[in-house]
From TrEMBL, chain A:
Residues 133-156, 171-198, 278-299 are annotated as: Disordered. Residues 210-490 form the RNA polymerase III Rpc82 C -terminal domain. It comes from Sporormia fimetaria CBS 119925. It is found in: Nucleus. This is DNA-directed RNA polymerase III subunit RPC3.
UniProtKB/TrEMBL annotation, chain B:
It is found in: Nucleus. Component of the RNA polymerase III (Pol III) complex. Residues 1-16 have a biased composition (Gly residues). Residues 40-49, 189-202 have a biased composition (Basic and acidic residues). GO terms for cellular component: RNA polymerase III complex. Residues 1-25, 40-65, 134-267 are annotated as: Disordered. Keywords: Nucleus. Its main location: nucleus. InterPro entries: RNA_pol_III_Rpc31. This is DNA-directed RNA polymerase III subunit. Residues 50-60 have a biased composition (Pro residues).
Length: 667, 267
């Protein structure tokens, strides 16, 4: 079974809570049956549950629409079996994170499209257009314009929910017309410049979606995305196999490789962006900051010309790409760690670097990569793709110009790096370490800026974690990131942080012990004392505690025939993968506890919440709720925020421990 | 670092542990440390000193917006057609054990809050079954056995089969901002008023269809559930305009008398 798809009881509990929190009780009940019993057909589900078949079917539809469940209908329609998609179910907690990431990177409009996609599960482009810009089924073009404008007016006036029913009662109109007839409402935008910019036209919507697809945040929905890992494997196997099953080890190995490459093909097909049609841009489309977007597209070999707008295929079904969210999470986590360990300016530099790489990275690690060659020299010779390389000059160009790049650098170095280019009158450093005459960090030319940025990247590279690795001299200096080394260090860092957060003796000796064991391998008590340079009995309690917590493994090897404890070797060792999984399970447990606490706290204020959402109270809380009740509501909101915040922080730990690299196999 | 006071004095009988002129006396040994200005505790130490639990650091701006977005999306999903509250007293969807009877209605009834009053009509109605026919689907992606639920006979299909009463539209939000809930309430209410007037007729017919469907299948579980009060909810969402319309349409005139005002309410 695939590594990411393994399910554990505590994860099942966590996902159940999440599904219930987001999609309500019915979906969660059906989910819980599937979690308990594994892959099931509909009739087996009926048997295993107290729900009636209508409820189960409805629950399944909800789960399928939101991609929380795989089904095998495409390969074995009668009867189809259902299976939980654990990755996606866990990813429910990342909804907020995903939106924040998109908003940071591409602005509020993109975040709005994403939030709708998240709410809807997946959707066809035409339905999304229809929802954004409801059209009236009439013949005259003018009347349609009115329809669009009026609906937009209501949106701009501040109504959050688009109510399609009120405006549309009839057959779906021709979709192409809707595209052609779109008009941005210029007066509207002028009238409300301070409001959050909403998507103003179909062309704009299409271009936002297309841009997100190019960046990998939105992907196509295909029927084979609904196949569980086993079904997908079987399908890829039958496609790769050909006429007869292979014979002999060699042929079987080849088949394995063939299956892997077939799976990769299938997966890459999901994220390829279909080339959209374009049409001439009309005056009505307005300026949707196209130049800006074209620049950002960057890596793509095709981009619409300035006088064209994109028209996506109507029947294209799209959804959020969960793997991209993980990639962005990796960026955010690394930037946070760099900020903690090195400083805020290098963190900014690093953020710029990583975001540039992000565009070309579709996933953190390839689950279906070809097995790595045993000979390490082959691996080091592998070509690094150009998308994974970042030069200092690119960073200098793209970095936020309002950052004081000199911060954290030695003033002498600054003078050296800037002097030859900036001016003939060279500055000097006085006794207090102040540069005189001062150099303005915001008016540097690109060359000097590049050198300064390069110095910051060097600081990143010099850190024991090796956040960056030098590659070549292109663009002043070109860097890449060796994920295969960096991520295990992060995991180790996370484990050490956890161990050192214990009591005083863990703080003192726990991390020391872990590091010694990691370096030396298996040790018995005597050699442990020698390695740590301290008496064994001092460290014994720490070993004991860490063993109980599952971070340190023990082994007993008899030296004589009778397996006497006295005559046996008692070895201890540290295994990163085991410790990682242990910590991951504990993190899940922590999240479960936080969510349970949330449920409990909600139960305490249940009556009040019911009152607060009564239709006569809503919006007039001050009038109908007492002072104490308002205070309690505020308290509850604070509690909810705090608990969710903790859950999201733990989610970051889960990202580090689970999502950024595959299983660490010690040779 | 600083020794707890009192020991030296007790042992040597020389009075105070610390005398600046003589230096410090620990365990009978005089030490010439200058500890001027340092306050040394002489009393017995507290056995269980108060140790406040570690506090999580306050959220950064990014984390704050993350939580905001999560809450906003969740609230929208709760207001959407998929969110359900069964309120049937069960913890999971697994089959009951033989010796574990189904929770009876009386056990689930809270005499303090569940009594029907006139103002109960303002309470928020929660679905007990997702409303699937209000939006278009990519039907091909669903298994054949579930497709019948998606293209409902009451509507003509989004692709324009015949004239349909109601077009299927996705419910979307045009602004992703996590505005406070109270703001949204106000807007929703204004919109609701318009909508009620706009399409009173539609909903009535629609409800009848639903009810027939429910009566057809009659396993025991449904019968029980139908009597449960539907008004409970353990979440704090905003007004579900969708539901409430349905409610107002047929709620006031007929239902309040016959004991279960939620009979015709949405499920």
């Amino acid at each position: 079974m695939s590594y990411a798809q393994r399910e554990t009881p505590i994860l099942a509990e966590l996902c159940e809570l999440l599904v219930e929190d987001v999609y309500g009780e019915l979906a969660a009940r059906v989910f819980s049956v599937l979690a308990r019993h594994g892959r099931q057909t509909l009739s087996a589900l009926n048997k295993a549950s107290y729900l009636n078949s209508r409820q189960i079917k409805h629950g399944l539809v909800v789960l399928i629409q939101q991609h929380l469940v795989f089904h095998s209908a495409a390969v074995e329609p009668e009867p189809a079996s259902y299976e939980i998609d654990w990755q996606q179910s866990y990813a429910l907690i990342r909804y907020g994170r995903c939106l924040k990431q998109v908003e940071e990177r591409y602005g509020a409009q993109a975040a709005n499209v994403m939030s709708n996609l998240i709410t809807l599960g997946h959707t066809r482009v035409k339905d999304l257009r229809e929802a954004y810009f409801p059209t009236r089924p009439r013949d005259g073009d003018e009347s349609d314009d009115e329809g669009i404008n009026s609906s937009k007016k209501s949106a701009a006036n501040g109504s959050l929910f688009v109510n399609g029913h009120a405006e549309t009662n009839g057959v779906a109109p021709a979709k192409v017309n809707g595209v052609k007839r779109s008009h941005p409402d210029e007066e509207e935008e002028e009238a409300h410049p301070e409001e959050e910019k909403v998507i103003g036209s179909v062309a704009e919507l299409d271009s936002v979606i297309y841009n997100l697809m190019l960046q990998g945040w939105i992907m196509k929905v295909e029927w084979n995305q609904y196949l569980g890992p086993t079904d997908l494997h079987a399908m890829a196997g039958s496609e790769a196999m050909g006429a007869q099953p292979p014979e002999g080890t060699k042929a079987k190995q080849l088949l394995e490789l063939g299956i892997l490459s077939r799976k990769r093909e299938i997966r890459n097909e999901w994220t390829t962006v279909p080339k959209p049609r374009t049409r001439k841009r009309t005056a009505a489309d307005g300026d949707i900051s196209r130049s800006n977007k074209r620049q950002r597209i960057g890596g793509s070999d095709w981009a619409p010309r300035g006088d064209e707008v994109i028209v996506l295929d109507d029947n294209l079904a799209i959804r959020v790409n969960p793997e991209k969210v993980t990639v962005a999470l990796r960026t955010d986590t690394l930037v946070r760690i760099v900020r903690q360990l090195i400083g805020s300016v290098p963190a900014k530099v690093y953020e710029t670097m990583l975001r540039q790489i992000e565009t070309h990275t579709s996933r953190c690690y390839d689950e279906w990569a070809d097995p790595t060659p045993v000979d390490p020299s082959v691996e080091s010779n592998q070509e690094i793709e150009s998308g994974e390389l970042v030069s200092a000059r690119e960073v200098a160009k793209n970095i936020d110009p309002n950052i004081d790049l000199f911060e954290g650098l030695d003033p002498h170095a600054i003078i050296l790096l800037t002097s030859s280019y900036s001016s003939s009158t060279s500055s000097e450093v006085d006794a207090k370490g102040v540069i005189d005459p001062p150099i303005n960090p915001f008016t540097l030319d690109l060359e000097a800026k590049t050198r300064i940025v390069d110095r910051h990247i060097q600081r990143l590279a010099d850190h024991p974690f090796h956040f960056a690795t030098w590659h070549s001299r292109a663009g002043y200096s070109q860097w890449h990131i060796r994920w295969q080394d960096l991520i295990p260090s992060l995991i180790q860092h996370e484990i050490e942080t956890t161990v050192s957060a214990g009591n005083a003796s863990y703080q003192k000796f726990g991390v020391k012990l872990l590091r010694a064991l990691k370096k030396k391998g298996k040790l018995d008590e005597r050699s442990m004392g020698i390695v740590l340079m301290m008496p064994a009995n001092e460290i014994r309690s720490v070993v004991n505690g860490l063993t109980v917590r599952g971070f340190v493994q023990t082994q007993e090897i008899p030296r004589v025939e009778r397996r006497e404890a006295k005559h046996s070797l008692h070895l201890i060792w540290f295994d990163t993968q085991r410790a990682r999984e242990k910590l991951l399970q504990e993190t899940y447990k922590g999240m479960v506890r936080a969510l349970q606490r949330l449920q409990f706290e909600r139960e305490k204020v249940k009556v009040l919440l019911e009152k607060a959402e009564r239709s006569d109270v809503v919006g007039q809380e001050e009038r109908w709720l007492g002072k104490g009740e308002l205070e309690a509501l505020r308290l509850w909101k604070g509690v909810e925020r705090k608990l969710l915040l903790q859950v999201m922080r733990m989610d970051e730990v889960v990202g580090v421990l689970r999502d950024f690299c595959g299983p660490l196999v010690t040779p | 670092m600083a020794p707890r006071g009192g020991r030296g004095g007790g042992r040597g009988g020389r009075g105070g542990a610390y005398n600046p002129s003589r230096g410090i006396n620990i365990g009978g040994v005089e030490l010439n440390w200058d500890l001027t200005g340092l306050k040394i505790e002489k009393g017995p130490s507290e056995r269980f000193p108060a140790k406040p639990p570690p506090q999580a650091p306050p959220p950064t701006a990014g984390e704050d917006s993350m939580v905001q977005h999560y809450l906003a999306v969740r609230d929208r999903i709760h207001d959407g057609p998929f969110y359900t509250i069964l309120n049937d007293g069960m913890k999971s969807g697994k089959k009951r054990r033989a010796n574990e009877p189904a929770p009876i209605e009386a056990a689930l009834f809270n005499p303090f809050t569940d009594n029907q009053t006139y103002t109960s009509k303002y309470r928020k109605i929660r679905r007990r079954i997702p409303k699937l026919d209000g939006r278009p689907y990519v039907t091909d992606l669903f298994p054949p056995e579930l497709r019948s639920l998606l293209d409902d006979h009451t509507t003509g299909g989004a692709d324009g089969g015949g004239p349909s009463k109601k077009k299927k539209t996705l419910q979307i939000a045009k602004s992703s901002g996590g505005g406070s809930k109270i703001d949204t309430y106000l807007k929703v209410q204004a919109e609701r008023l318009q909508d009620i007037e706009a399409r009173a007729g539609d909903a009535d017919e629609y409800d009848e269809d639903e009810d027939e469907e429910e009566e057809e299948e009659g396993p025991e579980a449904i019968g029980e559930e139908d009597n449960f009060s539907a008004v409970s909810s353990d979440s704090e969402e905003s007004g579900d305009d969708y539901n409430a319309e349905q409610y107002f349409d047929n709620g006031e005139d007929e239902d309040l008398d016959d004991g279960d005002p939620y009979e015709n309410a949405y499920d």
